[in-house]
Amino acid sequence: MDQNICKIAILGMGTVGGGVYKILEKQKDNLIYKIGGGLEIAKVLVRNKAKYMDTVAPEMLTDQWSDIINDDDIKIIVEVMGGLEPAGKYIKEALQKGKHVVTANKDLIAIHGHQLLELAKSNNCDLLFEAAVAGGIPIIRPLKQCLAGNEITEVMGIINGTTNFILTKMSEEGMDFADALRLATDLGYAEADPTADIEGYDAGRKLAILASIAFHTPVTFHDVYTEGISKITAKDIRYAHELGCEIKLLGIAKNKEDGIEVKVHPTMISAKHPLASVKDSFNAVFVHGDAVDDAMFYGRGAGEFPTGSAVVGDIIDVARNMQFCCSGRIGCSCYKTIPIKNVRETISSYYVRMKLEDRAGTLAALAGVFGSNNVSISKLLQKTKQGNTADIVIVTYDVLEKQFMDSIAEISNMSMVKEISSIIRVYY
């Protein structure tokens, strides 16, 4: 077997690329038994070769894509650069030349995944991307293989570790958002520019990938409604606790009779739900299928070695397929075209916190507006009072979003309403 060597190239040597390199080096004596043949890193593409001379063998380093794409001995391209370009160009060229691709690039897969998978199919290539969602947690392969006998109706989860860390600190230590974000940045959980995390874009990209696979329909990032956590306050978290809930940034995808719902937003979820106990930077994905019922996948959602673990798992899978002449056996699973619903056509319960002028008839007027828009109130609590202004919390029953938002638009113009402080969806 050791005569049969599969050569690979790694594009990028950042956090994930470094993890992949270290894992492959550590595992190289075992890979021949795991794969059925040898595996060799032939090239590593970097911008600055001098920066990596002490960590990567100099003969492996290159700053020229042509050294890789024109080398017919390199059979697997491992893309861990991130971003849309030039990663997208490199992956397309690799697939067109019959090279297999492993990537961790959620941005690219969430927008162009369907087209790239079709390109891989037409060239009898593997394109695997387990690391694009939830880091080291196996979820792409289980959806495509282990749960293939199910009709999946719901996938939801905590798929961004930064926001989960922030919300955990706000929940357990009473921090406000700004302090929790500052701590996340200091500890390396948040980027210098945390926008993609805290505004829900990162989770939205991952949810698009999960929904596409689970529901067999192309779903892109642009189809996902996204709302971040920057408006969540310590007061909202205290009130959530009083209601027996935790607040989490959830990605929720549902396959309903009238179409697919894909949303990322802060959510009040019962403290008894398994996702409520997922803390700090951990991720978890909750899946409901008609045969398996409920299943949850939990673990580290990011980092050098968790994400590197998922990438190396894909590399091994591709190399095994090559050894046994079965490349491209599991490609694009999007054989349906289920419509994707606008967020205003989705149904949810809502938590609303507002400041009202404390005068006779205020609550009756509110109830009248909600009632005229078919919004039923489940709970109504008066929390605090300062002078002639009261803090009111309302929780609704399930309602069509456009009816709820029409109510809020009308209420916000009422003279006794001083402020609509917070609106958070509730998941039961």
TrEMBL record:
List of catalytic residues: K206
Known EC number: 1.1.1.3
MF terms in GO: homoserine dehydrogenase activity; metal ion binding; NADP binding
Amino acids binding L-homoserine: E191
Ranges for domain ACT: 351-425
Binding residue positions for NADPH: K106
InterPro entries named among the record's database cross-references: ACT-like_dom_sf (IPR045865), ACT_dom (IPR002912), Asp/hSer_DH_NAD-bd (IPR005106), HDH (IPR016204), HDH_cat (IPR001342), HDH_CS (IPR019811), NAD(P)-bd_dom_sf (IPR036291)
Annotated PROSITE patterns: ACT, HOMOSER_DHGENASE
Catalysed reactions, as listed in the record: L-homoserine + NADP(+) = L-aspartate 4-semialdehyde + NADPH + H(+)
Pathway the protein acts in: Amino-acid biosynthesis; L-methionine biosynthesis via de novo pathway; L-homoserine from L-aspartate: step 3/3; Amino-acid biosynthesis; L-threonine biosynthesis; L-threonine from L-aspartate: step 3/5
Keyword field: Amino-acid biosynthesis, Metal-binding, Methionine biosynthesis, NAD, NADP, Oxidoreductase, Sodium, Threonine biosynthesis
Binding site for NADP(+): L11, G12, M13, G14, T15, V16, G17, G18
Cofactor(s) of this protein: a metal cation
GO BP terms: methionine biosynthetic process; threonine biosynthetic process
Family in the record: Belongs to the homoserine dehydrogenase family.
Protein name per UniProt: Homoserine dehydrogenase
Organismal lineage: Bacteria, Bacillati, Bacillota, Clostridia, Lachnospirales
